[in-house]
Structures are given as structure tokens and as C-alpha cells.
Amino acid sequence: MNNQAETTNTVDVLIIGGGINGVGVAQAAAAAGYSTLLLEQYPQLAYGTSSRSSKLIHGGLRYLETAEFKLVRECLHERHYLLQNAPELVKLTPFYLPIYKHTTRRPWQIFAGLTLYSLLGGLKAETRFHRIKRGDWPALDGISTRNLQTVYQYYDGQTDDAALTRAVM
To answer: Which of 37, 69, 82, 98 is positioned for an S-S bond with 90, CB 3.0–4.6 A?
Structure first.
């Protein structure tokens, strides 16, 4: 029998997994004053999904279709925050939306959706979009001009998510 007093180390919050979600929870818990321990099975953070994701810090454009306006606003708010506070890790990248004669959504519908997207983002520069001039279409790599009616350009955020995960930690 051991006569020494046993000591135990305790933590308030235990997080398993060092991906972006795990380190985000760890950061929030520590900022709230909780003692926090994060466990990761691999030797580096962001080993799993975080190192294999799309690398986008998207504004939630796809959620407009299901009328999840609050979620779009939250996505745009978070993206704006990251663009402001981590410009070395998150940058705007142009995306192109070609609309062909056979495309399900008509140009006016895409225009309306992109307008709503910009409004939900507070009409900030990073939420603005524009129509690409017909004369510039041939310069767009990977976009066929056959039956093309219009092309819109908007911006989304892109990151090195492993570097972002390490920075959050």
C-alpha cells in the first residue's frame, strides 16, 4: 500500500481530435477560463479531415437555396472575421458561375441569389459580384462558351487549413 497522498490532475474540458473543430473548441474553452486538454492521435494537428478539406472558408452561398439565411449571414460574418484577422491565412478567390441555355436556374435567378448573398454580407467588398463580359468568356479556363448565356463572378475565402488549424491552436 502506498502511503503517499495521491494527486490527480483534472481538466475542465477534454477534447479528442486536433482538427479545426477540436482546436476551435479548445480555443473557446480556454478563452472562457476553463482548463483545457486536447488529445490528438497523430503527431501533428490537422492530420485527418482538416488536411484534406476543400480549403474553402465559404460564405454559405449554397445555403440560400434552402432559405437558411441566418446560416449564410453567420458564414459570411465568420469569413469576414477571418479575412480581417488572419489575412496571411485566408484570401479571397474568384469563382465563376456559368449559366447555359440548359442550366436549371436562369440568369435572373442567379443574379437574385447573388444579390441576396451580398445583402446578407452587409454589401461588403468581399460579397460583391459581377457579370463577366461576353468578350472575356474565352479567357476563362475550363468554361465552354457553347450555349453559354452569362457568367457571374463572386468571391469565396480560401485557406491552407492545416496552417489555419495550427494558428487557432
So the answer is: 82
Using the CB atoms, write b or e for 121-140: b if 16+ within 10 Å.
beeeebbebeebeeeebeee
- The model's pTM is 0.74
Alpha-carbon span 22 to 4, nearest angstrom:
36
The span from the CA of 50 to the CA of 45, in Å, is 9
User: How far apart (Å, rounded) are the C-alpha atoms in residues 122 and 15?
Assistant: 35
CA 167 – CA 50 distance, rounded (Å): 13
Q: What is the pLDDT of residues 113-140, one digit of tens each?
A: 999 999 999 999 899 999 999 999 999 9
Q: Is the CB of residue 65 less than 8 Å from the CB of residue 104?
A: no
